[in-house]
């Protein structure tokens, strides 16, 4: 899941303690972006910065999550703004709806299997929306200019449609997730710490593991499928390094289009992902030490909250808050 929850986990540094996934060794079938660029709706729902809140102290990045890896590959300057400068971002309707739908699908599994129905899931939406506003007051600003509530009503109806579509793709009455919203963290031999939050982990009676992620957007075209799977391979790598077990299946459930994308990884896949992440981390460390964070213009720039600070739009980045060394000095 590429929501704010994961971003919070990434920015939390080493304070949060990871939960070990219940992965059991066993033979590998579980029943039942170009590049790693998230669609605009997949951008994180940021935590609001109250006017009287202290300015966060800049620290060098210490870990990597799928969303932050995607940020750097999309645009190194965007990574700097989010991780180093921690510039505030406005919540978007699409990303907030994604967070709401994820919360509903997670909570539905609290009910007995026979009661996991579409009407019950839709009935959870108002309460989860109220809870989201309580925990993240900034999302209430989305509908501040909607006194009659018409836009909010349409937005909630769209969330209902996404929830309903899920029932055409999976049958929750036949699923008993081993974990939901599972925070995982692993340190590679190189010292790089990988972390993230997995939407759902299913474990078959035979011990085979399936990692599932919900997407509220549409499935990518086939030529972009590899980029979409990067996040899932990232999670599979973390699970493999934690438990020495390769997940049997990676599954992306696209509620926006009603598609399910699956992939069965092998060790060679995860080794390639690890090499890619190590190279990416070297580039991030170099940029951190030199302060050289270059923008990479793409069509996604139109959705960026940081145009006022971006040279590509005539803006100036804030003063770099970390010490730098001259390029070529070591």
Overview of the molecule:
The chain has 330 residues and is an alpha+beta fold. The chain has eight helices and five strands. Strands 1-2-3-4-5 form a five-stranded mixed β-sheet, sandwiched between helices. β1 and β2 form a beta hairpin. α4 packs across α5. The longest helix is centred in the C-terminal third of the chain and has 24 residues. The N terminus is likely disordered.
Q: What layout of secondary structure does this protein have?
A:
Blueprint: H1 4-11, H2 66-74, H3 76-84, H4 93-108, H5 118-135, H6 150-169, E1 179-187, E2 193-203, E3 209-215, H7 225-243, E4 249-254, E5 259-263, H8 267-290
Helix pairs in contact: 2-3, 4-5, 4-6, 5-6, 7-8
Primary descriptors:
alpha+beta, 330 residues, five-stranded mixed sheet
Structural class: alpha+beta
Strand content: 5-15%
- Our count of helices gives 8
Shape: globular
Give helix % range. Answer: 25-40%
- Strand adjacency order, main sheet: 1-2-3-4-5
Q: How far is the first residue's CA from the last residue's CA? A: 38 Å
Mean pLDDT: 86
Q: Radius of gyration, Cα only, in angstroms?
A: 20 Å
Could you tell me the number of beta strands?
A: 5
Largest sheet: 5 strands, mixed
Q: Which oligomeric form is depicted? A: single chain
The H/E string reads HHHHHHEEEHEEH
Low-pLDDT residue intervals, each spanning 5 or more residues: 1-49
């Amino acid at each position: 899941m590429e929501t704010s929850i994961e971003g919070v986990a990434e920015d939390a540094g080493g304070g949060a303690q990871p939960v070990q996934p219940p992965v059991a060794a066993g033979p590998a079938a579980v029943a039942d972006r170009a590049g790693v660029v998230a669609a605009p709706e997949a951008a994180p729902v940021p935590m609001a910065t109250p006017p009287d809140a202290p300015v966060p102290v800049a620290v060098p990045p210490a870990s990597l999550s799928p969303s932050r890896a995607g940020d750097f590959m999309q645009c190194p300057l965007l990574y700097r703004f989010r991780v180093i400068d921690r510039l505030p971002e406005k919540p978007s309707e699409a990303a907030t709806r994604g967070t709401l739908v994820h919360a509903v699908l997670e909570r539905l599994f609290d009910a007995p299997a026979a009661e996991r129905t579409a009407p019950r899931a839709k009935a959870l939406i108002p309460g989860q929306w109220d809870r989201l506003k309580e925990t993240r007051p900034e999302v209430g600003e989305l509908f501040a200019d909607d006194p009659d509530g018409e836009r909010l009503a349409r937005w909630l109806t769209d969330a209902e449609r996404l929830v309903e579509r899920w029932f055409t793709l999976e049958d929750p009455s036949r699923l008993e997730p081993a974990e939901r919203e599972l925070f995982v963290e692993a340190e590679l031999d190189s010292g790089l710490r990988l972390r993230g939050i997995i939407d759902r982990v299913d474990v078959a009676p035979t011990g085979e593991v399936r990692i599932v992620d919900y997407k509220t957007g549409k499935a990518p075209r086939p030529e972009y499928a590899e980029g979409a799977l990067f996040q899932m391979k990232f999670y599979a790598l973390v699970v493999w390094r934690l438990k020495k077990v390769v997940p049997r299946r990676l599954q992306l459930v696209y509620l926006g289009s009603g598609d399910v994308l699956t992939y069965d990884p092998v060790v060679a896949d995860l080794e390639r992902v690890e090499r890619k992440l190590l190279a990416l981390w070297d580039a991030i460390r170099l940029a951190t030490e030199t302060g050289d964070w270059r923008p990479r213009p793409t069509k996604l720039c139109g959705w960026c909250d940081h145009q006022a600070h971006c040279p590509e739009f005539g803006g100036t980045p804030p003063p770099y808050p970390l010490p730098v060394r001259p390029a070529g000095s070591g």
